[in-house]
């Protein structure tokens, strides 16, 4: 929805937005994850001053400016009705953010830009981007529970199918029934808040997690006559692949690396559709995406603590939502961070893989 200049003036009167541009690309990649993490930590440390000393919450959020390829913007927003107080807080925020940027050689050329100054004269495309932030900025979406009553027609997967070993070709047939055909029934199943991506129904969670081995089997080129065993009832493995003669070919552990609050994201995204999350939700989303590397390390370390009686590989799964839908350079930088942070490397695992969407990456 477009807003007029009068409406914009009213909205701007009670909110402030400043920004720092990264036209060269995602700062996680261009700065490197180590420098990026230290820079974000320094900024967040300064932002605590505003909350503790000025009783003012400053929201730090990130946007990809889609008009230009690989153009990223860090936004800093707060809300204040008193114009004098707003200007004082904005001036202090400008000073502190610029001081932090200058303390980092790779970011010293960046500058905090205030949108409330006369020299802020953006081009029409950037102005539209700015409007999208101002409009509804003071809202905060709350996650809502998925419907208790099933809202889609797709028949739930029969969990008992995975109780017994099955051939690769039989497994593919079960999985493809849900994912290969773009029928209205399947599309509705994926879009429903209680559907494929929801934790509301255990059979959907199972299907979501058991879908992963099909990508793994493509990776290792499993033959159709090989046999799959799923460790659903006995916590001894997640997947075992055996040759037709019964010899074990591969044993796989599967774990997810999820930022805190990930289970709420589906509901929030469903509420905005193709629009932007409001400022407060966006600031929380940045914290979630910034924590992804740490969550991967934590997930691997959690598996390292277990004692396994045999040789196996580990598959760590991450959602695309926190990687700008699987941005290749961002994932590679994340893997570098994990490799630098993980003490002991792969240890007892034969290999450690990362899966994002349907793409595999080797961590070790």
Automatic annotation (TrEMBL):
This is Uncharacterized protein. It comes from Pseudomonas caricapapayae.
